[in-house]
Design brief:
The complex is a heterodimer of chains A (about 290) and B (about 300). In chain A, about 75% of the residues lie in helices and about 0% in strands. Chain A is mainly α and about 290 residues long. Chain A has a domain of about 180 residues: MetI-like fold. The radius of gyration of chain A is 24 Å and the shape is globular. Chain A starts with a helix and ends with a helix. Chain B is mainly α. Chain B folds into two domains: about 55 residues, no CATH class; about 230 residues, MetI-like fold, CATH 1.10.3720.10. Helices cover about 75% and strands about 0% of the residues of chain B. Classes of the chains: A mainly alpha (about 290), B mainly alpha (about 300).
Chain lengths: ~290, ~300
């Protein structure tokens, strides 16, 4: 064996543990879930001991199931409201404003990053106080200052509530990525525009926005994928309730599999969510044109 | 930037910027105010208020009255092992991926990017089935080789379901793709001349990794380790499904179960626990801040 051959084998050997781990705990389960989705496997009862192949039965049930469509719709509004609109708008505004030479910039930067750093359950838990019912909760006090009625937010506007929390969590990621995009726009472009007498909003609409459009596109893909995988803080806040109003796909899978014990049906939902994520993922990889 | 150049009056522009940024900062910070203030309040409630009765009793309660010490211990052991494993596997694998010229390099890297978009909730059903099977095999092995009274403690450590080994391996697998990607791109920036010089001097693979690559790779390893730590420390789904024994309970479940006890909700204790739980990840996040841009979403700049 030549030394090049030996070096090639050594590289394969040190990569092997990672490959095995990903194979057994990610790739195999992903493939296995496709198989499970065609069986009646369950946690208890006859399906637990002897799961049978049932063909498209789970999918047929899925597409006729109002709670599945509800979950898909809730996920859509959740992604649209928090990732596409909330995080993006606030992240962009913060990125543009923090590009100014402000004295308090490091402090504000730190505060905006804080929600991103906390564990999922903590994020859910500390918002309970903001969204609680009664006149004393923070959000109710704010709307009362505008002359509106206080609410028990998690019961009256549950989906809006979790969109508010997820927006809060993700401003930082949007800001970081968009700041990187903004800093790649050369100074001279702005100077030329100002020379030509462009107003601030014109500069933004005609220069900044088109130049950071690729960054915005990437941000949308990344945040959509990561929002589809959310489970923790929503489960901690609402467990999908009330009445399925916040049952995003992750929670629907969990409830069907581990509360209703129907693993086969849960796997079918998982396959649908895998397909959605992979479509976005492939778009992402192609859009990146990654140099690997 | 646009506003800075175009604004006619920079002072007024700055005031506007501060006004808007203060609103956004308040949105970000208010929940934390409640958590901190309630945690030092002797009469903490669900609502934000200034404490009248300042106390540290809520914090001591976490460790003396409740099982906080157990939860912390388990979280530190599990997440510590995960971070270490991710750094070792990610370092070795990232080095191999950076240096190899084999045909599988490109497909493998695309596969890693795709694995990163797989939503963890979509994997819980098959993972549970796979690990239940592995756990059964481990049980028969342990029964065969160990004396009867060692069996239960051994399964706590080596069990795949409701044991340290299982949760450590799952969380490692979840964090590994990002680490491989970070370290692969990191090693791409380290010149191959170092490897080749060491090779010419007759260094073995272990020596090359230990003496040449390890010192050079420290920033990359730190970034990979910090990100793995933050997301494993904050993970809720996997401990929820794979850990059931009270003595193996980790912080996320400790906090979650504590605030589900309906009749005895003690907000002072809960917020103290939440504050203690968030401190390590906030510190790690502070340290990881400078790596955030490069590694965002699996390497925006490739």
């Amino acid at each position: 064996m030549t030394y090049q051959q030996r070096a090639a084998w050594q590289l394969r050997a040190i990569l092997l543990p990672s490959v095995l781990l990903l194979l057994f705990l990610v790739i195999w389960p992903a493939v296995y879930s496709v198989w499970l989705s065609f069986t009646n496997v369950a946690l208890v009862g006859p399906g637990a001991a002897n799961p049978r192949f049932v063909g498209w039965k789970n999918y047929a049930r899925l597409f006729g199931d109002a709670s599945f469509w509800n979950s898909l719709l809730v996920t859509f509004w959740f992604v649209l409201g928090s990732a596409v609109i909330g995080q993006f708008v606030l992240g962009l505004v913060s990125a543009i404003l923090l590009n100014r030479p402000l004295r308090l910039r490091p402090l504000i930067n730190g505060i905006l990053l804080l929600p991103n750093a906390v564990p999922e359950v903590v994020a859910g838990f500390i918002w309970i106080s903001m969204l609680a019912g009664g006149d004393h909760a923070v959000l109710s006090r704010i709307v009362m200052a505008f002359g509106l009625a206080p609410q028990d937010w998690l019961n009256t506007f549950p989906l809006t509530a979790i969109i508010i929390v997820n927006t809060w969590r993700g401003i930082a990621t949007a800001m970081i990525l968009l700041t990187a995009g903004l800093s790649s726009v050369p100074e001279e472009v702005y100077e030329a525009a100002v020379m030509d007498g462009a107003k601030p909003f014109q500069v933004f609409r005609l220069i900044t926005l088109p130049l950071i459009l690729p960054t915005i596109f990437l941000y949308m893909l990344v945040s959509t994928v990561s929002t589809i995988s959310i489970f923790g803080f929503v489960y901690a806040l609402t467990r999908g309730g009330p009445g399925g109003a916040t049952e995003i796909l992750g929670i629907y899978i969990f409830n069907q599999s581990f509360t209703a014990y129907q693993l086969g049906y849960g796997a079918a939902v998982a396959v649908i969510s895998l397909i959605c994520s992979l479509i976005v993922g492939v778009t992402y990889v192609r859009a990146l044109k990654v140099e690997v | 930037m646009a506003l800075r150049h175009a604004g006619a009056n920079p002072a007024r522009g700055n005031a506007m910027a501060y006004a808007i940024l203060s609103l956004i900062s308040a949105y970000c910070a208010v929940p934390f105010f409640w958590a901190f203030l309630a945690s030092v309040d002797g009469n903490a409630s669900l609502f934000l208020k200034w404490p009248e009765d300042w106390t540290a009793a809520n914090y001591t309660k976490v460790f003396l009255v409740e099982d906080g010490a157990t939860w912390f211990f388990n979280s530190v052991v599990v997440v510590g092992c995960v971070t270490l494993l991710v750094m070792v596997l990610g370092g070795l694998g990232g080095y191999a991926l950076s240096r190899t010229q084999a045909w599988w390099k490109r497909p493998f890297l695309y596969l890693i990017l795709l694995i990163r978009v797989v939503p963890p909730p979509a994997l819980i059903v098959p993972l549970y089935k796979v690990l239940l099977l592995a756990n059964g095999a481990m049980q028969s092995l342990m029964r065969a080789v160990l004396p009867a009274d060692w069996y239960r403690p051994a399964m706590r450590i080596f069990g795949f379901v409701d044991g340290y080994l299982g949760i450590i391996l799952i969380l490692t697998a979840m964090q590994l793709p990002l680490a491989l990607w970070i370290l692969k791109t990191f090693f791409d920036t380290v010149s191959k001349d170092y490897d080749e010089a060491a090779l010419l001097d007759g260094a073995s693979l272990t020596q090359r990794i230990r003496l040449v690559m390890l010192p050079l790779a420290l920033p990359g390893l730190a970034a990979a380790g910090l990100f793995a730590f933050i997301s494993a420390w904050g993970d809720f789904l996997m401990p929820l499904i794979f850990i059931s024994s009270p003595e193996l309970q980790m912080l996320p479940l400790g906090l979650f179960r504590a605030f589900l006890r309906v009749n005895t909700v003690d907000y002072g204790f809960l917020t103290a626990l939440a504050v203690l739980y968030m401190i390590p990840s906030v510190v790690a996040f502070g340290l990881a801040r400078r790596f955030l841009v490069q590694t965002f979403g699996g390497g925006v700049k490739g």
